[in-house]
Amino acid sequence: MKNHPSLYARRFRPDIPGIVISLLSVVSILIIAMIFVFIFVKAAPVIGASGPGLIFNSGFDQQVQEAFYSPPDAPMLVFGLLGLILGTLLSSGIALLFATVLGVGAAIAICEYCNRKIAALFTNVVRLLAAIPSVIYGLIGLIVVVPLVDSLFINDDRVIQYLDHFQMSGRNLLSSVIVLTFMIVPTVVSLSADAIAAVSNQLRECGHAFGMSKFRVIWKIVLPSARSGITAGVILGAGRGIGEAIAVSMVCGGLGILPKLSFGLINLLAPTLPLAPAIINKSEAMGSGPVANALFACGAVLLVFGAVLSITARLVSRRLVKGGAAA
């Protein structure tokens, strides 16, 4: 019995869309791998010369100046990024804390307390805010936030008191935190609102049937059910905060100063320099080979932060999914 030609062709016809998607996936993986290899190769001289001191030592600003004027036959390749790392963690961490509280609260208000028309309006506004270029946030920070912080928290007595340690101005850690907070909030609100809206109304009705108040239903039923989406929004917000360069570089002050515990909250009024803005601020000196290697080292540390954040997000997501399935 002969096989029908149409059946034969159908059985052995290649899955062209699947092949194209597989090829694009492989190309994407190769591009990402090449980026990692390129950055770490460029950063290798500084990483090799600095060793663990690259992470545990400070003085990056002075080291960049020394490296720029170092002779080609004896390049200065020893750098310390501790001040930049702490600036990144403090600015992003504090901003993420505020953005999480504001973002989740706004998402609850939109999904649980607003009618459909107002909720749709707020949702569109939040998405519009998320699409605004970062340089616009930096410009607003420079025009509004910096003068406001300067007028509210900085006076002549404080400037004189801490003059031996740093030059106090409106461009400082606090301004960076405020700008980053408003940049992260739309991401947290958007993903948290989607997660909350996806919670079944039957769960809410079940809680009300047991006599629970609206707030208790939200706190005990809605938020635990939406925690996976909320966590995703917070982690994506953290990624944006750590990698933001342009806006923060406009308001941070541009100095990688180590915070001192004895200063307390005054550290918020000190200039700071996170890793990503450092690449922008010091890019004018990239004509010097050692400085270029140092900036690539900053990029390598940022890539490590991003990889750790991505792996953490995956582990947290799996744990939350397993916990939800077990419940």
Quick structural summary:
The chain is an all-alpha fold. The protein has helices at 5-12, 16-50, 53-56, 60-68, 82-113, 116-131, 134-153, 156-161, 173-197, 201-209, 214-225, 227-243, 246-251, 275-281, 289-326.
CATH superfamily of the domain at 83-281: MetI-like
Oligomer: single chain
The geometry reads as: globular
The count of helical stretches stands at: 15
- Beta content: under 5%
Q: Return the string of H and E elements.
A: HHHHHHHHHHHHHHH
Main structural class? mainly alpha
Q: What CATH first level of the domain at 83-281 would be assigned?
A: Mainly Alpha
Distance between the ends: 56 Å
Question: Which CATH architecture of the domain at 83-281 is right?
Answer: Orthogonal Bundle
Determine Rg (CA atoms, Å).
25 Å
- Sheet having the most strands: none
Note down, in words, how this protein is organized.
By secondary structure, this protein is mainly alpha-helical. It has a domain at 83-281: MetI-like fold. Helix content is 75%, strand content 0%. The protein has helices at residues 5-12, 16-50, 53-56, 60-68, 82-113, 116-131, 134-153, 156-161, 173-197, 201-209, 214-225, 227-243, 246-251, 275-281, 289-326. Helix 2 (16-50) crosses helix 15 (289-326) and helix 6 crosses helix 9. The radius of gyration is 25 Å and the shape is globular. The mean pLDDT is 87.
